[in-house]
Amino acid sequence: SDSEETCMNLEEQLQTKNMEMSKERKKFEVEISQLKEKLEEGTSTIESLRAEVSERSAEIETLRNQSANLENDLRVSQDCLKAASSEKSNMEEELLIKISDSEE
To answer: Using CA atoms, how far apart are residues 10 and 14, in angstroms rounded to an integer?
Structure first.
């Protein structure tokens, strides 16, 4: 009968649609799985980069401290050099005075 044939056609169409939908769902699940993997990789990369940034920041801070210490050492050395230079000038003056006194 006509209604039986219509019913069978509808059932066949429904099965075909179900198979198509099942294939689409499997494809979608594979894509989601791949996206999750990429997300995990990205998260891992971000964590690794954060650790590296933290490590580099600590190194930079150490270098800044060393630089400040060296600048301070340089200032102290320059002050000592000025004092020594001044003392040398004073000693030379005294020596010249003694020489001129002894010549007189």
So the answer is: 6
pTM: 0.56
User: Largest alpha-carbon pair distance within the chain?
Assistant: 151
- 23-33 pLDDT, tens digit per residue, is 999 999 999 99
**Angstrom distance (rounded) from CA 68 to CA 60:** 12
What is residue 6's predicted lDDT score, i.e. its pLDDT? 93
- What's the sign of the alpha-carbon dihedral 3, 4, 10, 13? negative
Report residue 87 as tokens.
């003392």
Q: Alpha-carbon Rg of the chain, whole angstroms? A: 44
pLDDT tens digits, residue range 73-92? Answer: 999 999 999 999 999 999 99
Amino acid identity, residue 40? E
Cα dihedral angle (65, 68, 70, 72), rounded to 10 degrees? -140
